[in-house]
Amino acid sequence: MRIKTISLIVGIAIAVIGTLTYFVTGNLSTLYWICGIAGGVGILLSGVLIGAFLNGSDIRGNYFSETKDHRDTRTHASISSLLFSIPNILVLLGFYFF
After folding, report:
1. What SS3 string covers 43-78?
2. How large is the greatest C-alpha to C-alpha distance in the chain, in angstroms?
3. What's the whole-model pTM score?
4. I want to staple 39 with a disulfide (CB 3.0 to 4.6 A). Which of 23, 28, 75, 88 is the partner?
5. Can you tell me the distance from the alpha carbon of 84 to that of 98, in angstroms, rounded to the nearest whole number?
């Protein structure tokens, strides 16, 4: 399987674990902790890998100092991290608004 599919499946599994924990304990804060931490870490890691927290000169320096293969690997890792966090964020939003 591809790494993007695996990261999405792991994200869905953690979202299901958080949801089951909520239904077993009846405590909504456990759902927020499990899915919130997983979603937040995934989004933060995706932002760091893609370079969202850098200024223009750092981005330009990184662009010219890395190879195309390294840039593609970093971009794929960022997308995989984002795919990991999407199910957890959707579960959080679903339980928060409904």
Report:
1. HHHHHHHHCCCCCHHHHHHHHHHCCHHHHHHHHHHH
2. 52
3. 0.91
4. 88
5. 23
